[in-house]
Amino acid sequence: MSNEIVQKATVPQRTVAFYHDVMAEMRKVTWPDWPQVRQLSIGVVILSLFIGLVIFAMDNIFQLVLVSWLPKLFGG
Predict the structure, then answer these.
(1) Angle at 22 between CA 30 and CA 16, to 5 degrees
(2) CA 19 – CA 30 distance, rounded (Å)
(3) What is the SS3 assignment for 60?
(4) Cβ contacts of residue 36 below 8 Å, gap of 6+?
(5) pTM
(6) What is the distance between the alpha carbons of residues 11 and 18, in angstroms, rounded to a whole number?
(7) Within its chain, how far is the Cα of 47 from the centroid?
(8) How far is it, in rounded angstroms, from Cα 14 to Cα 8?
(9) Nearest 10 degrees: CA dihedral of 65, 67, 70, 72?
(10) CA–CA separation, 55 and 49 (whole Å)
(11) Domain ranges of the chain
(12) C-alpha–C-alpha distance, residues 22 and 3, integer Å
């Protein structure tokens, strides 16, 4: 085995290296254009509203069944 002493990089050196790595990766990112951002945002809002309506409907149905029908069914 070799008697070489391997020095670890200092915190500032690792920080600079990390920054350079992040910048290199960010140059590879394909950013969406404005129409694509708008279209996807509208899709998210519509999907969220739809899921909210489904949850609202299920809540009302379960409330109707559990609060109104079950007590009547068991003489409550």
Answers:
(1) 155
(2) 19
(3) helix
(4) none
(5) 0.59
(6) 10
(7) 14
(8) 9
(9) -120
(10) 10
(11) 11-73
(12) 34
Answer whether 17's CB lies under 8 Å from 9's CB.
yes
Q: Which two tokens stand for residue 53?
A: 């309506």
| 16-52 confidence digits (pLDDT tens) | 999 999 999 999 999 999 999 999 999 999 999 999 9
Interatomic CA distance for residues 58 and 50, integer angstroms: 12
Structure tokens belonging to residue 21: 């790595």
Question: Considering only CA atoms, which of 25, 20, 26, 1 is closest in space to residue 9?
Answer: 20
Count of residues making up the chain: 76
Backbone torsions φ then ψ of 50, nearest 5 degrees: -60, -45
Residue 54, classified by CB atoms within 10 Å of its CB into exposed (0-12), middle (13-18) or buried (19+), is: exposed
